[in-house]
Amino acid sequence: xxxxxxxxxxxxxxxxxxxxxxxxxxSIMFGALAEGTTEITGFLESADCISTIECFKKLGILIDHxxxxxxxxxxxTVHGKGLNGLKATDSTLYTRNSGTTTRLMSGxxxxxxxxxxxTGDMSIEKRPMTRIITPLTKMGADxxxxxxxxxxxxxxxxxxxxxxxxxxxxxxxxxxxxxxxxAGLYADGETVVYEPALSRNHTEIMLSSxxxxxxxxxxADGSAAAILKPGMPLRGTKINVPGDISSAAYFIAAxxxxxxxxxxxxxxxxxxxxxxxxxxxxxxxxxxxxLNYSDVGEARADILVKYSELHxxxxxxxxxxxxxxxxxxxxxxxVAVLAATADCDTIIKDAAELKVKESDRIATVVENLExxxxxxxxxxDGMIIHGGKPLHGADIKTHQDxxxxxxxxxxxxxxxxxxxxxxDSCVGISYPSFFKDLQSLL
Length: 442
Ligand code: S3P
Fold this sequence. Notes:
Strand content: 25-35%
Number of domains: 2
Bound molecules: shikimate-3-phosphate
Strand order of the largest sheet: 2-15-17-16
Largest sheet: 4 strands, mixed
Number of strands: 23
CATH class of the largest domain: Alpha Beta
């Protein structure tokens, strides 16, 4: 349990956040499937990404940690064995809390010559896997939910020849898209995944840097396709992981929560498919500037954020929905907290996916914001937040959801009295040093 009080002074500083979680997972996975070594710097050493490392070690991949003698930078080296180099394991691959590990690895395992079993913790065993079982089965894979409930544990019979597919996903999901693309690397024809809006495209960007023939096409209505032509070998490369915008989001929000604050967050990944939080907060009046922008490979920048009062414009109503949702899906708990302090009603819609994240984030955000005195209503696909009522301290139930713990730690900085984050250890899933980094600004 961690107890936090209302911030007593503005937050000022020049900070870094740890590496991007989505990019870190992929760097291990693609490195393992590449020929030769892949050197990764900026890797996120959190529970989720360590799960990915452990799973690949079980599949026979050597992965070393070292400190570069020239500059002291921690480096992870993956000794890839090529697309056909993984070895069978008798034990079940255990992904802990990581949806990305579970879904992306299933695409790889579906194409192997050996059988495998994969599962994770209680939260993973409740999350929907039919969304990957259906397309993988269409490709010729033999993958099933062991309990028959559409969730993990999953059993995969190997030795199946996979075929490329053209698959139309109803929701924009990078985990589903990436799972299909990874299976597609082994298929006998082109694989195309269509989605209603472009979900985070780290798989496409990174696979191309490994030598794969893959690209995105965006239609005039914003719907998107990822197109993979298999057959190119993957070659080991060097990857420098930028800071995670999802982790930076807590400090952006903290600066907007505490009057007089000004924070510079350095070297953050600002891929457009991830930056919805910046777009939306600017529309609500936030003073956020990107400095030192570079778009070689994954775009990155320093983010300068200055305290600003958030509002909903002349009619005091702000709507967040549609194609913005996939670009800020993991930041919606944080945005909901900020909306509670804004001088407007905020409607979050088209976000039913929140129900199937690490917790049901519609229910858990509403429960905790209500406990802090916010006037908020859950809807089928989001929530309606009547902002502007002062927040007060409360006991926050995280439901072991890291994003809840961090969002409500930031809420505490703007709330009267003491806020206690119960079950705070879940921050280790994506940001082990979060409380230390936050305390350093208080
Ligand atoms: C992720 C994709 C998103 C996101 C998750 C990480 C990824 O999930 O919520 O935290 O690394 O591909 P969905 O694909 O289910 O939207």
